[in-house]
Design a protein that fits this description.
Layout lengths: L1 E4 L1 H12 L5 H9 L5 E5 H14 L2 H14 L2 E4 L8 H6 L5 H9 L4 E3 L3 H9 L2
Parallel strand pairs: 1-2, 1-4, 2-3
Helix pairs in contact: 1-2, 3-4
Length: 127
Amino acid sequence: MKIVLDTNIFILGFIGLSEGKETPETMILKDLLKKEKTLLLSRDIEEQLLRVFIRVKDKNFAGLMRHLLWSDYSIEFVITEGKSSPPTYKKIIPRKDLCIFLTAYTGNADMLITNDIPFLEKAKQCS
């Protein structure tokens, strides 16, 4: 099963793990550690994660998160550069969420996990 996580799941999950919290986001990340599911990742998502982690924590935490992501999870890297979603999707999906949606679309994701209900509803319209 191929899964795309929205940035909010990564951020809340990794911060929760670092603080020893048991939240829905940490449970998702712990489940993915079993490597029974493949996490789809693109350069845009990785860059977005690093920017946010540096802003909310620091560059050391961002580097550690990147290391853990690549060493402990089953990752399939999706190349989204030069690809675009159908024009009708661009009218539906908010620009801030387009890289997440494009990664899911290009990587043929089976599941998109987000806390952003309006984004999820718009993504459902495109499936």
